[in-house]
Amino acid sequence: MGGEHRPCFTGAQTPRGCYSGIETPRRLYRRAQTTPRRCYSEARAPRESNSGAQTPRRSYFGEQASKHCYSGAPLLLLVTLLTVSGAASGQLRYSIPEEMRKGSFVGNVVLDLGMDAKELSEGGTRIETRGRKQYFAISLNKGHLSTNERIDREELCGPVAQCLLHVEIILEKILKVYSVEVQIRDINDNSPTFFADQITLQVSENTAPGARFSLPDAQDADVGNNSLQHYHLSANKHFALDVKIRADGTKHAELVLENSLDREEQDIHQLILTAIDGGDPVRSGTVQIQVTALDANDNAPLFDKSVYKVSVLENMPKGTVVTTIKAVDIDQEPNSEVTYSFNSIMDTVLQTFSLNSKTGEIALRANLDYEEREFYEFEVRGSDGSFSSKCKVFIEVINVNDNDPDIILSSLINQVPENSPLGTVIALLRVADRDAGEHGQVTCFLPPHLPFLLKKSIGTYYSLVTAGALDREQVSQYNITVTATDNGTPPLSKTKTINLQITDENDNPPVFDQISYSIYIMENLFAGTSIFSARATDSDWGENARITYTICDGDIGDVPLSSYISINSESGVIYSLQSFDFEEFREFQIQVKAQDGGSPALKSNATVKFFILDQNDNIPEILYPSIPKDGSSGVEMAPRSSEPGYLVTKVVAVDADSGQNAWLSYQLLRSTDQGLFTVGLHTGEIRTARLIVEKDVMKQFLVVLVKDNGQTPLSSSVTVTIVLADTMPEMLYDISNPSAPTDVESNLTLYLVIAVAVSKFSVDFTELRPESQKRLALFIRDPGEICCHSDLMILQQEWTLRPCLQKDLPGLLMMEKTCDDRTGRPRIWNEEGRSCVLSGTRAAAKRSAR
């Protein structure tokens, strides 16, 4: 380049025009190989006109050259356009160095093929690398081919000098395939290495100068100038280094004895052997050589062959002995005993073969695969302990037909309409066989009498197309079996079945069996209960007959329908999302829509009206007498002079249900005196049933049951306490006296029932001393404020209650009063034991002093 080589893309010619008038691809490539290595920035821009004017493509090379200049190495480009079986195709060749970072630019496919960028982005483009890894990626909008991961040439190609990767760019929608060949150039990224960290030699002290000792070769995975070039030995007075070049160009170092050893003077000699490659910058590796001076043994083992060549079938089992090597030492035992070992070999050889150190048998440690590697070459060393010699082993792997052909579907259409025209592409497939030669050639065919045809495309690609009319009513689906057979002996085959559905046209809407439904459901259903199943039918087939059910938007009151019900879109079953409450609403209406899966979709609606049925789910609620939170019962007072039928109080209750579920009845469940009071069945009125006599217990307890009229009746109960007394002092005396204990030393507990009618009052405590008991009576003297903060009350002392209970004054207060028997000073405490307690509900309240 730079005047020495004229690029193929000159003037305003297209790539095809270039081949017709300038140079053939082979001549262009041959000339490019002889061109000095330079960067893109030195190359002449493509499509450069004779007048020096530049097209837009020249600016790409000018601006991008520095980005893709790898240490002065050339980027080699070969463009070849082919036409195969009517499908457009092309070949590109790029050259890049190894170890480029992921995403590094390789080439502009659109520019180099003269394509339209739109064709690449809209053609269903994908990239495929032959092998196990996807090394490259392509930008669909720019057409840039870039590395998809780091490429290690040594891992990919090993010692092979010419390392190529084959990439296929497939445009599935237009059935075009472009082949790209990328050469991976070696860089000096590997240092020479020795198989062992130390080389141990034993040299007899009577060994004459000029004796040679074979040294293990250093290994360098790089190739060309980057590989091993020469050796260097550290300075010493006994040994020199002689490097020989083998027929294959590899270098072998031998240690030459220049001056005889004297074991008595020095028995061990330490040397450093350095292997140096020819890269820039230079890399090197070293190994320590330890030479031990010995007596006697002066003959090295000799192999009967310098090279052992053997051929092995790739399907030989593990453990098979491939060959046996043998070396002879004319010395007497034990100096004639030879030990065999591998000499500086790669890991792949160690993983594949084993060597018996005593017998020299080389056997298979792993299965061979011709498709992975065609031959193995390595060295074996024979040593008698002092001297050693080497021989080369060359093992050729013979290919056998051991791989079935493979059918790879690149793209597939599972459904086609029955009115599809002839030639409709159903699938794009590729056949492959890992065997080589005739064993890897594959033929592909279909069974007869099918309305389909396999059309050969570029390379090993086939297109499966329609070759006859399709009729869904006759055949609704096809199972197309594609068979691939190789040319091996015996031939191997593989089949792949493609399932193809023939689709219908959508011309029938879903139909409900009724246009409206009336559904009755009970309240209190569990969430998730199925309450109705909407069913519609569609006479179409497949997706056109697949019905989806939805509920049209609506509200129940201010709440969306979606909060109460849901529908299974596939089965049409309607579920409750929460329980319905008859007391909240009694009916609602929805619209169910059935829509098929055709395009355009067809639909129909049905009206569903739900009626909520009442259940007896509410127990009667007792409004009066109310039940205090502290568990005490209400207190009513009945004069002892009451006549039969006297209205003492009334139990009032309601039920939230409706109809007969809300009909309430009252009955006396239990009482202190069964004949003293009656309860009205429908009114709840508590009246005296007879005259009150003196022997009747002063405090009467009545349990009143309130029951509704449901199928399973629900009920509530309340306890009413009635005190029989004509006057307040009499009531106070009667209810406080009976519970006093007989123990003189014990505290006296009494209950005070106070009828409160004013907001301020004064009380007197009168001490009564019948025998050993103390009793206090509390009388109202003056109105006063209510207070509950007195730590100590003294007998006969007036006291007022401060406004801590001003808000809801009780009609009757009951509290406990304790008297200290020793001091005679009564104390009235609250729950914390620090203040008096006067509190209660309208009926009564009971508080216990601590």
How would you sum up this structure, described in words?
This protein has 850 residues and is mostly beta strands. It folds into seven domains: 171 residues, Cadherins (Immunoglobulin-like, Sandwich); 97 residues, Sandwich (Immunoglobulin-like), CATH 2.60.40.60; 97 residues, Sandwich (Immunoglobulin-like); 94 residues, Sandwich (Immunoglobulin-like); 103 residues, Cadherins (Immunoglobulin-like), CATH 2.60.40.60; 104 residues, Cadherins (Immunoglobulin-like); 124 residues, no CATH class. It is 7% helix and 40% strand. It has a five-stranded mixed sheet with strand order 1-2-8-7-4. The protein has a four-stranded mixed sheet with strand order 9-15-14-11, with no helix packed on it. The N terminus and C terminus are likely disordered. InterPro entries: Cadherin-like_dom, Cadherin-like_sf, Cadherin_CS, Cadherin_N, Protocadherin/Cadherin-CA. Potential calcium-dependent cell-adhesion protein. May be involved in the establishment and maintenance of specific neuronal connections in the brain. It is a single-pass type I membrane protein. It is found in: Cell membrane. Keywords: Calcium, Cell adhesion, Cell membrane, Glycoprotein, Membrane, Repeat, Signal, Transmembrane, Transmembrane helix.
